[in-house]
Design brief:
- The complex is a heterodimer of chains A (116) and B (111).
- By secondary structure, chain A is mainly β.
- Chain A is built from no helices and 11 strands.
- In chain A, strands 2, 4, 5, 6, 9, 10 and 11 form a 7-stranded mixed β-sheet that branches. Chain A has a 4-stranded antiparallel β-sheet with strand order 1-3-8-7, with no helix packed on it.
- Chain A is globular, with a radius of gyration of 14 Å.
- With 111 residues, chain B is mainly beta.
- In chain B, strands 2, 4, 5, 9, 10 and 11 form a 6-stranded mixed β-sheet that branches.
- In chain B, strand 7 and strand 8 form a beta hairpin.
- Classes of the chains: A mainly beta (116), B mainly beta (111).
- Chains A and B meet through strand 4, strand 5, strand 9 and strand 10 of A and strand 4, strand 5 and strand 9 of B.
Chain lengths: 116, 111
Amino acid sequence: NAGVTQTPKFQVLKTGQSMTLQCAQDMNHNSMYWYRQDPGMGLRLIYYSASEGTTDKGEVPNGYNVSRLNKREFSLRLESAAPSQTSVYFCATHPEGTTQMLYGYTFGSGTRLTVV
Amino acid sequence: GEDVEQSLFLSVREGDSSVINCTYTDSSSTYLYWYKQEPGAGLQLLTYIFSNMDMKQDQRLTVLLNKKDKHLSLRIADTQTGDSAIYFCAERDSGTYKYIFGTGTRLKVLA
């Protein structure tokens, strides 16, 4: 089934540990995004990639790095995890083109990260 | 900067209508969206509306757009327990391809 796959689904880290969240899409889209979701704050954009080989900062990039490994994969790395990074992380993609904007985003099922 | 606002909670009885409201700031947004998030899952697109429309109906869902007031609403007729979820409105920033999400409204349907 076409879609967005995120791994892992759950993770507990100790403060200062590092980890990489993986995202892969098989929809052949150029754009990929990383969001974090916190209660009462909606979704906030961390980083995005408009195409293979490009990445840009979003609204809340501090403490994160990203890699657009190829067209399918977009990973998010926490180099030194902090309790403030406890959140649910979503990867998303959408098609390009004016007539395709009506399809909106396709989201992964999320990674629930707890930093203790 | 752009901001999209929603009330955080809504509680309705099964069979009643639900109305979820949203205000946005980018008057040049071309598309506006409603997403549904069920517990433990990602967001799924429910419906969308073009900025040149006032209303869109899709089965039990009715979307109303008031461009003058930058107000978007989602009405769910005959609300069912399966409609319990968080609902997000979103606008597409006219200057970029990024989407801006509201804070989400948690809908609780009481049996």
